[in-house]
């Protein structure tokens, strides 16, 4: 024991690594050295002394940091009146454009990553947009896409054989090698039952705003780019022989399966 130097040591302080024989000596060494007995999670450990326990401790430390940062972000966003007013204003502007924009609670992935804004000077939206290319298992996120931009122009940097980035072009070569007439742009109908998922086909020659009118958008639009010549399990509304074409307004309102999954993850 490094405190009394009489008894055999039984304990070692996680903080200062001093040996002690009893609770009394532990309290004495804490008082003498102003030691709190809590292990210093950021203390340097050489590679030779690094063990699996140290690795596990570091992993848990990083988890604690992540939880603390996430809790702080949620607390600030939840109690920030400005954020609530901006969201309300965003929904109201979307409603005036005949777009049913819905926002998720604080903490959801789509809520955190959404960067959609409305420019009051220009009187138009700048959308956070996700492009999904199922045939190549590729996804791309676009920020500040003006609502008056034509869908075909939005896709040019990705599937146009001349204007697309060489790296992107190589990854999406199935699309770049296909004629533009084979490209279809689909968007999931959000207010459908989970066992009846359908998609709306968008018009590539029209603007993003025109295509979003009359639609339900949860946080931001996600566009699926598919090819007619390749098999796809995405059923476009009205193309299924078992059901007639209908408006999505008549369906019962519910979150999409992705949002339901996020609710389960969050809980």
UniProtKB/TrEMBL annotation:
GO cellular component: nucleus; pre-snoRNP complex
Gene Ontology terms describing biological process: box C/D snoRNP assembly; maturation of LSU-rRNA from tricistronic rRNA transcript (SSU-rRNA, 5.8S rRNA, LSU-rRNA); snoRNA localization
Comp. bias intervals (Acidic residues): 240-249
Assembly and oligomerization: Interacts with FBL, SNU13, NOP58, NUFIP1, RUVBL1, RUVBL2 and TAF9. Interacts (via HIT-type zinc finger) with the RUVBL1/RUVBL2 complex in the presence of ADP.
Keywords: Isopeptide bond, Metal-binding, Phosphoprotein, Ribosome biogenesis, Ubl conjugation, Zinc, Zinc-finger
PANTHER family: BOX C_D SNORNA PROTEIN 1, BOX C_D SNORNA PROTEIN 1-RELATED
Name of the protein: Box C/D snoRNA protein 1
Domain HIT-type positions: 1-35
Pfam families referenced in this protein's UniProt entry, alphabetically: BCD1 (PF25790), zf-HIT (PF04438)
Any one GO molecular function term: zinc ion binding
Chain positions covered by the region annotation Disordered: 240-267
Family membership noted in the UniProt record: Belongs to the BCD1 family.
Summary of the function given for this chain in its UniProt record: Required for box C/D snoRNAs accumulation involved in snoRNA processing, snoRNA transport to the nucleolus and ribosome biogenesis.
InterPro entries listed in its UniProt record: BCD1, BCD1_alpha/beta, Znf_HIT
């Amino acid at each position: 024991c490094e405190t009394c130097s009489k008894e055999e040591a039984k304990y070692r302080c996680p903080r200062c690594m001093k040996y002690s024989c009893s609770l009394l000596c532990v309290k004495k060494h804490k008082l003498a050295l102003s030691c709190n007995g809590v292990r210093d999670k950021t203390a340097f450990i050489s590679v030779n002394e690094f063990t699996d326990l140290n690795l596990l401790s570091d992993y848990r430390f990083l988890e604690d940091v992540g939880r603390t940062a996430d809790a702080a972000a949620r607390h600030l966003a939840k109690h920030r009146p400005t954020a609530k007013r901006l969201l309300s204003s965003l929904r109201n502007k979307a409603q005036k454009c005949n777009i049913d924009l819905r926002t998720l609670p604080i903490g959801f992935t789509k809520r955190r990553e959404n960067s959609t804004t409305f420019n009051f000077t220009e009187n138009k939206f700048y959308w956070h947009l996700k492009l999904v290319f199922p045939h190549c298992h590729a996804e791309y996120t676009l920020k500040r896409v003006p609502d008056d931009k034509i869908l075909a122009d939005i896709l040019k940097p990705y599937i146009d054989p001349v204007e697309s980035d060489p790296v992107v072009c190589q990854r999406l070569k199935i699309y770049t090698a296909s004629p533009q007439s084979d490209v279809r742009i689909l968007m999931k109908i959000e207010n459908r039952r989970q066992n009846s998922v359908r998609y709306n086909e968008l018009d590539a020659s029209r603007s993003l705003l025109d295509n979003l009118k009359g639609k339900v958008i949860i946080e931001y639009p996600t566009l699926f780019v598919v090819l007619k010549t390749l098999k796809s399990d995405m059923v476009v509304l009205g193309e299924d022989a078992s059901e007639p074409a209908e408006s999505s307004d008549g369906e019962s309102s519910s979150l999409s399966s992705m949002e339901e999954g996020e609710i389960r993850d969050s809980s």
